[in-house]
Amino acid sequence: MTSAVTIPRHGGTGGRTAVAARARQVLKAYGSGETRVVALDHVDVDIARGQFTAIMGPSGSGKSTLMHCLAGLDNVTGGQIYLDETEITGLKDKKLTQLRRDRIGFIFQAYNLLPTLNAIENITLPMDIAGRKPDKQWLAQVVDTVGLSDRLRHRPSQLSGGQQQRVAVARALAARPEIIFGDEPTGNLDSRAGAEVLGFLRRSVDELGQTIVIVTHDPVAASYADRVLYLADGRIVDEMYKPTAEGVLDRMKDFDARGRTS
């Protein structure tokens, strides 16, 4: 069985929404023989450019594996992953590292900030390592979008958890990547700080034209997205556009109920 989900046509244009990343018949398996476990089962999916996509599903559904494969952080067993028109499956390590550095941004649950650097130094660190100068106008716009203008000279220990995650968001945005992936980016935050970070992610899509994909288990986090993809047993089994927290929660309860009766 395959899972095919494509983004819809916009009415009146006659063409499809631009695609930032796509998976074609992606298979990810671990082990062999009787111990073989299939994490992704021939998944087809398009990620729309300039939109916010959330990936959800129960533990073991393959949601994090899908994000890691789309981001080039994990190899696939079969199928193809494309970033725009570039196939990333099969790229040599050096080329893949360069692609991730130059074209993909990452936001992780643990922030991953260097304690000896202040906020602005953490934000520009990936570009400094790559020997690239930041676009000052863009950097100022990103800093303003995430509300960090008055905290740039503070080190991580002087920032709250929400502020640290905003630094991580700004770091991902600052290099102007084609797509940003977030793995439970609000998982370590309280509800207020989480709402702030999610609001900044939403603004980065609406105001800066960014493409964002997050993995989350939180219906409230998913409600900030344009589209929610639901995974179960390594397949995309459903999707929701213009989600609400209540709608997402109801859908997840429905999946849980199916799992108990199957």
Automatic annotation (TrEMBL):
PROSITE patterns the record matches: ABC_TRANSPORTER_1, ABC_TRANSPORTER_2
Database matches in PANTHER family: ABC TRANSPORTER RELATED, IMPORT ATP-BINDING PROTEIN
Limits of the ABC transporter domain: 21-258
Protein name: ABC transport system ATP-binding protein
Keywords linked to the UniProt accession: ATP-binding, Nucleotide-binding, Transport
Keyword Nucleotide-binding: yes
Claim: Transport is one of the keywords in the record: yes
A molecular function (GO) term: ATP binding
